[in-house]
Amino acid sequence: MVMTVPINEIVYEKYAPMVKRIAAQYANRYRMVDVEDVRQELWLWFASHPNKTNEWLQKDVKDADPLFARSLRNAAHDYCVKEKANVEGYNAEDNFWYTKDFIKLMLPATLSDDWKRVEVFASEVKGSKSPAESGDWMAYSADIKKAYKYALSDKEKALVLMFYANDVDADTLHKELGEERPSAKATQMAANRAINKMVNYLGGFAPRKDNDYEIKDEDEKEIHDDED
Q: Is residue 2 part of a domain?
């Protein structure tokens, strides 16, 4: 049972617009879910996370708002995924979520159009299973290739191909594709953001268990970090 505390007026007045906006975003994405139910779920997040709420309220708005937004998106995402499963008659735990690390590992074989490399890669991954538990690594590869083709601009494709598929180092990547970016690190981050776009195209990041303690930035930033 989730323990909750009352939501005070300060929290309500300050974050009602954010709750309304995020609930609308997810209700639009998951049409089988009622927007009022999503709003209720987001207010429940505040009520069940008093420690995190109080700590973040002590921060400057520019620091606090992104933290609240990320956690609220995570709560909305988790709720909508489960409701979709209930409506469509399957177990939400059967969902398969593409991760950035998995996509990065698959890119060299996938973008080379060498199916033998995909088979070799699959054979080297212990306990590997496909989204449908079928071991169909060709399906993995086809999904990733589709995301690469349709989710990215030509410039982003070049970054991903060189950095993740062809294993070009960050300095060389910056020299060839850095354009106006100030450093090799900035160019590498642009390649990383392109992978984020691929993840979102393939269904988004998996909802995370959200306890009532402050999430470190490196853990939190992967949750829908393409928004806001």
A: no
pTM surpassing 0.70? Answer: no
**Could you tell me if 81 and 113 lie in one domain?**
no
Q: Is residue 140 part of a domain?
A: yes
Q: How far apart are CA 27 and CA 35, in angstroms?
A: 5
Cβ(80)–Cβ(30) below 8 Å: yes
- Taking a C-beta distance cutoff of 8 angstroms, is the pair 147, 110 a contact? no
Helix axis angle, 61-88 to 50-57, nearest 10°: 150
Residue ranges in 30-136 assigned as alpha helix (H) = 35-48, 50-57, 61-88, 100-111, 115-124
Residue 22 near residue 42 (C-beta atoms within 8 A): yes
How far is it between the farthest Cα atoms of the chain? 61
What total of structural domains would you count in the chain? Answer: 2
Exposure class string for 98-107: b at 16+ Cβ within 10 A, else e: beeeebbebb
* Residues composing the chain: 228
Burial of 160 (0-12, 13-18, 19+ CB in 10 A): buried
pLDDT digits (tens, 9 = 90+) for 56-99: 999 999 999 999 999 999 999 999 989 988 888 877 776 778 88
Find where tokens 């002590």 sit.
58
